[in-house]
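Morning run. Coffee first, then this:
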Amino acid sequence: MSSLENSEDIYSSVKDYYGKVLTSSKDLKTSACTAAAAPHSIVRKAIESVPKAVNDKFYGCGNPIPLGIKGKDILDLGSGSGRDCYVASSLVGPEGSVTGIDMTDEQLQIARDSIGDFEKTLGYSPKLKFVTGYIEELQKAGIEPSTIDVCISNCVINLSPDKKLVLAGVHQALRTGGELYFSDMYADARLPESVRKNDVLIGEGLGGALYVKDFEQIAKEIGFAHPRVLSISPIAINDKEIQNLVGNTRYYSITYRLFKTDEHETTNQAGFAATYLGTIEGHEDRYELDIDNVFDKGVSAPVNRTTAAILSSSWLSGFFAVEETPNSANGLAALPSSAKTLINHLRRLEQQNSSTSGGCCSTGGAQGGCC
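And here it is:
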């Protein structure tokens, strides 16, 4: 296995790996680029309408497509064959738009060639397009600032040689109140150079996986609100050679939510309460903002100041009623759990289960699978 010395080598390696080496998701050497949990029934129905050629070249590691996006403008980073773009296009309807950006010509060709068949299935012409470019250079690819409501990405940002530049570009492209809703691979420790520069490990996403603490710090430095973990599950490495290369490092598929919102303006004495209105199709009874914040329809729940800002000023604002309360302690409530805290919890569960049953681990509230 060869080593990579610079960004151009990384780009070339990723293009070759996803454009020429992999013929389908069956060629992957880990469980990383396969969905961590079954998608919502609405998403599954949308997937059924996606052309077969597009589905066959899907290499995602999660389900980073939120419900309730009708009429919204969506951007997919590293859209590949376009599977998630096609699904999102079904969900936004004729009034919304979806743009996919990718640097791999073979993948883009599949995505573009299938639009005609998709139009026939939908019964209308969707505002769906695919542009050639790098996810580090969104403006060069024609993605203008403050034009996107929700940016999605599925197991791609880890492939970038400059993740901070990617996140900064997304922050610029999002409208105020917009969100980066994405699944990706992360490590429970900083990776050695031998792992970070290995071409196969980079192609599989393992070589470029950030340490979770580093990622969350970068996101906050750029200006996103406190990162929200929606789901987390361990990644199984099936290839013995790769197992030897990564050593004791453990990898996780995490779905994060990063919101572009300001801190809620209020008096120093105010607290906050939020009530979910039950108006998102598919989430009529309950809505999960993140692992720590789950709202039942019609039930007022205390939230901290950052959560109040998200629910009152982001694209989700129409689905919630947020009010100030006399209890100032609510506004100062603890922030959502960090991924590192959740990983430690998962590892404790793994140890408990291995000592009692020796079988698959149960991850409780965090979505997971077999250890």
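The first helix runs from residue 7 to 21. Good start to the day.
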